[in-house]
Amino acid sequence: MTPTLVRHQSRTASAPRAGTTERARDWAEIQERMLVPLIEAAYERLDVGPATRLLGLGCGSGLGLLMAASRGATVTGVDCPERAARLALARERLAPGPGHEVAAGAGAARLVTGGPGDAAEPGGAPYNVITAFEPVGCAAGDTEGLVPALEAAVALAEHGSAVVLAGWGPPERCATSAVLRVATRLTSRLNDAPRWRPSLRDDLEDVAARAGLKPDGSGRVACPFGYADLDSAIRGLMATGAFDAAARAIDQAQVEKELVEALHGHVRRDGTVWMANVFRYLIARTP
């Protein structure tokens, strides 16, 4: 039986504004949690705990930092000024005291706006874990900024520190790949728009090699994208930024309409949306 789709009403016809509080909250409350199994698998493998001094690159609204801090790690997160709204949510999550998410006994937390070089703490101990949990291997060129960021972060870490990279798994095992193709189709006439491409087997190893890191193991983790309804799915996917160029090229209402059609086959009888995905992580070591 084919699920009955409820017509999705666009909340706005204007192009999305990157970094706004609404988009940041959609990311933090809907989309970011999809990566929990990936983050947990990497932390388990590295035995992240009280002895860990972790630097999170592109930390966003801080879920990865929160999970490490809850294990007792001392964490520092860094992200660019364009994501100030996400960082503000991370500060809310990681602030100690009643009403905040950090558990009693969690490690210390610090957040920095800027680049990895800004995360240096005068007189502080070097980091021994670096994470980059924003998955690569989805759009052409999506690793270009990551390599210099890793190189800058390595300078702040001790010898042999673990570096965690994350990426999409094989497209045939990622149901969301077909949905992401919508962005490429809608921006086919824009020369400067990011193009979706199938993830490659050695994407993460290539990034590690370019950053001067030595691979030290990898793993695959099931990370299904599950949403309460179509509206939540649209909000979560739009919050990723993958469809921003499409919304600028046409308009957001048309992008959302195309997403509804692409999600049709993933709507279950109870109205929830479910897409099975597999993600990869790579553990590399600093020189």
Short description:
This protein is of the alpha/beta class. It has helices spanning 21-31, 36-46, 63-70, 84-94, 146-154, 176-186, 203-210, 230-239, 244-249, 252-263; strands at 53-57, 74-79, 109-113, 127-136, 157-168, 214-222, 225-227, 273-275, 278-285. The protein has one domain (21-180, 197-228, 274-285): Vaccinia Virus protein VP39 (Rossmann fold, 3-Layer(aba) Sandwich), CATH 3.40.50.
SSE arrangement:
Blueprint: H1 21-31, H2 36-46, E1 53-57, H3 63-70, E2 74-79, H4 84-94, E3 109-113, E4 127-136, H5 146-154, E5 157-168, H6 176-186, H7 203-210, E6 214-222, E7 225-227, H8 230-239, H9 244-249, H10 252-263, E8 273-275, E9 278-285
Parallel strand pairs: 1-2, 1-4, 2-3, 4-5
Antiparallel strand pairs: 5-9, 6-9, 7-8
Helix pairs in contact: 1-8, 2-3, 6-10
Region (Disordered): 1-23
Protein name: Methyltransferase type 11 domain-containing protein
What this model shows, in words?
The chain has 287 residues and is an alpha/beta fold. The protein has one domain (21-180, 197-228, 274-285): Rossmann fold (3-Layer(aba) Sandwich), CATH 3.40.50. Helices cover 34% and strands 21% of the residues. It has a 7-stranded mixed sheet with strand order 3-2-1-4-5-9-6, sandwiched between helices. A two-stranded antiparallel ribbon has the order 7-8. The longest helix is centred in the C-terminal third of the chain and has 12 residues, at 252-263. It is globular and about 55 Å long. It starts with 20 loop residues before the first helix and ends with a strand. Residues 1-23 are annotated as: Disordered. InterPro entries: SAM-dependent_MTases_sf. This is Methyltransferase type 11 domain-containing protein. It comes from Streptomyces hundungensis.
